[in-house]
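Weekly puzzle thread! Below is a chain. First person to post its structure in token form gets bragging rights.
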Amino acid sequence: MATDPKTVQEDLEKQLADLKAELKTAKAKLKEQAEEYLEEGSDRARQLYRRARAGAHDIRDRGAHAFDDASSELERRVEERPLQAVAIALGVGLFIGLLSRR
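Winning reply:
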């Protein structure tokens, strides 16, 4: 089967042009999908950041409230039993002093 070299070349050039067009279309679709995934990922990251930030603020607020409660309770107990509070503070101070000498 003898084929004309010019016809073969034209056929190959057409196939190459078709392949280039298909690659260009595939590239555009991949780019579009990548941009969509990137946007979805960015949205998800923003949502997670907002949730983590809200959670951190909540933990901080609960910790501050617990500290205030404990501080108020300690102050109340010191006012109720000042001599006992001084004795405990003295004992803790002596204990820390002994530990620091070693």
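Puzzle host: Confirmed. Bonus trivia for everyone else. Residues 4 and 46 are 62 Å apart (CA to CA).
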